[in-house]
């Protein structure tokens, strides 16, 4: 049995993989992060990302909070509204920030990625695709970038369709389409309120927007599969489709859509997977979307990958301190992460199913439910779940 974790290879240079590189290096491990893209501009794309209290606390532990505050826009309120302009609920995120001593930030995903690339530095390898993993008595061998690597610890942080996960679970069914599609944009601020994250609910549609740093706003238009079946989308641009589907919605929805070049508005189908009872072998593990892909309804996909990275590094540190094995570290990592991420995957699914409702009566019932419960019961349960960390 291998004892001590001196070297690690992380497959995947996204948010979770880069954070794992930083965390494992701080744990005293010789780590390399392997990203299949040869050009960072190919992966430094996308819109915005919410980093809630749990992720910001994790980044604080990793010495990255100051870098985050330099690129993030602090959020103090989350508001829920109906597509007719009615206020449904308002969550005082700032009060929780005061109580916990850690904030919430809206960030540009490319800027966050650049920040983490800078923190990882020379430990990042580009153009290093993982072509498979084989398992032997003495550990695992990964074929990466034409080389065969046999690190003490191999971490699959390579996303929804992870090559490392495929090696661990070769007969698993494909990811599950959750029933809705997102259309996104980042535009100059048309006058939205600073520090407010807005979530607008309609019939089979949802629209989210929040301010970023540098005078920008991120928006996300979500259409359910029920709406999609009624779309006449043949030969039309994403901008035309989204403009039609959100016609008549309250300000600033039309302004945000109109400010985005139509050719830049493309559909992103959303997937998750059923939670699994384990995601490790004796020397190989997963994190982030490779381990527990989830829909975005709680804003926890990126946050949970950051949590994974910190907790994995803590478990490695603990195992090394008592001359434990890689197997011991990964068993502890799973004990700390499985139940929490399973709950968040399932909670995200439940919220997503509510957003697919499109019958007028059902949607009216949903609005009544949100007005009666969201400011008290749902607010408390949501933030209890998000902030219930063990680091």
Task: Give a short summary of the structure.
The chain has about 400 residues and is of the alpha/beta class. It is about 40% helix and about 25% strand. It has one domain: FAD/NAD(P)-binding domain (3-Layer(bba) Sandwich), CATH 3.50.50.
Describe the 3D structure.
The protein contains twelve helices and 18 strands. With 391 residues, it is of the alpha/beta class. It has a single domain (7-175, 272-387), classed as 3-Layer(bba) Sandwich (FAD/NAD(P)-binding domain). The strands form four sheets. Strands 6-5-14-15-16-13-17 form a seven-stranded mixed sheet, sandwiched between helices. A five-stranded parallel sheet has the order 8-2-1-12-18. A three-stranded antiparallel sheet has the order 3-7-4. Strand 9 and strand 10 form a beta hairpin. Helix 2 (53-61) packs parallel to helix 10 and helix 10 (301-321) packs antiparallel against helix 11 (326-355). The protein is globular.
Low-confidence stretches: none
> In CATH, what is the homologous superfamily?
FAD/NAD(P)-binding domain
**What's the helix count?**
12
| Main sheet summary | 7 strands, mixed
Biggest sheet strand order reads: 6-5-14-15-16-13-17
Backbone CA Rg: 21 Å
Summarize the helix and strand pattern as letters: EHEEHHEEEHEHEEEEEHEEEEHHHEEHHH
Q: Helices and strands: which structural class?
A: alpha/beta
The strand count comes to 18
Termini separation (Å)? 28 Å
Count of all domains = 1
Structure keywords:
single chain, 391 residues, alpha/beta, FAD/NAD(P)-binding domain, 7-stranded mixed sheet, 39% helix, globular
């Amino acid at each position: 049995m291998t004892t001590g974790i001196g070297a690690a290879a992380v497959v995947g240079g996204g948010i979770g993989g880069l954070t794992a590189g930083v965390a494992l290096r701080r744990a005293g491990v010789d780590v390399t992060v392997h990203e299949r893209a040869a050009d960072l501009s190919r992966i430094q794309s996308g819109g915005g990302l919410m980093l809630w209290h749990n992720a910001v606390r994790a980044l604080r532990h990793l010495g990255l909070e100051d870098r985050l505050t330099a690129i993030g826009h602090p959020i103090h309120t989350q508001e829920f509204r109906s597509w007719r302009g009615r206020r449904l609920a308002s969550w005082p995120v700032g009060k929780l920030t005061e109580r916990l001593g850690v904030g919430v930030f809206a960030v540009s995903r490319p800027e966050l990625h650049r920040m983490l690339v800078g923190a990882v530095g020379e430990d990042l390898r580009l153009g290093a695709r993982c072509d498979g993993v084989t398992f032997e008595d003495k550990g695992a061998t990964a074929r990466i970038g034409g080389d065969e690597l046999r690190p003490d610890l191999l971490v699959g942080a390579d996303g929804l369709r992870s090559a490392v996960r495929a090696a661990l679970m070769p007969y698993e069914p494909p990811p599950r389409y959750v029933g809705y599609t997102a259309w996104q944009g980042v535009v100059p601020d048309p006058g939205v309120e600073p520090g407010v994250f807005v979530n607008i609910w309609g019939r089979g549609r949802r629209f989210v927007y929040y301010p970023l740093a540098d005078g920008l706003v991120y928006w996300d238009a979500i259409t359910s599969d029920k709406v999609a079946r009624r779309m006449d989308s043949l030969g039309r641009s994403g901008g035309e489709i989204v403009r039609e589907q959100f016609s008549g919605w309250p300000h600033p929805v039309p302004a945000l859509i109109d400010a985005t070049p139509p050719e830049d508005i493309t559909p992103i189908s959303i997937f998750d997977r059923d939670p699994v009872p384990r995601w490790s072998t004796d020397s190989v593990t997963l994190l982030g979307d490779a381990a527990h892909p989830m829909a975005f309804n709680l804003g926890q996909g990126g946050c949970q990958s950051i949590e994974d990275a910190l907790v994995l590094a803590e478990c490695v540190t603990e195992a090394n301190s008592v001359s434990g094995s890689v197997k011991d570290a990964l068993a502890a990592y799973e004990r700390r992460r499985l139940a929490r991420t399973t709950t968040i995957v399932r909670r995200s699914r439940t919220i997503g199913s509510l957003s697919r409702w499109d019958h007028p009566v059902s949607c009216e019932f949903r609005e009544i439910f949100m007005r009666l419960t969201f400011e008290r019961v749902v607010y408390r349960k949501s933030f209890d779940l998000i902030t219930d960390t063990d680091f």
